[in-house]
Amino acid sequence: MEIETGGRSGPRGGHARLGELCRRLTDGSGSLGLGERGLRLIESITSELRTGRAPEELDDAFDELEEELLAAGHSAGLGSYRTTPTPLTPGFQQLPVAGRNHPPLHVLACPRGHCGRVEAPGDDASHPGCRIFDQPLRTVPLR
Fold first, then answer.
1. Number of Cα atoms under 13 Å in the Cβ half of residue 112
2. Fewer CB near the last or first residue (10 Å), C or N of the chain?
């Protein structure tokens, strides 16, 4: 099964640490238990990304944020490793089976295609949001 991305980074492409930051900001309260310096780094990174800077240009800021996360007790920093067991591969959720007479399948992905965050669509019509860009995740058809 392939994901049609329209020229943007697919779910396994993109900037990995940006995807993990986005996921963590969405899963928690947004602060991640960080002090003032860590919160300023998050604000700086998101501000720069919103103005159009490429995530790769911010690797030094991501390095600093990773150090802050490690100091705050996040053992994986901005890695995608989980410290709690999950039934599925980290970062991915199980998708419904596609078959004959089933509607086309899609996933929800980064609104700008900068990271590899992918979510299975929920039962309701609302899309989860990207806390980095303050936009809903975009629908990406599977083919």
1. 18
2. N
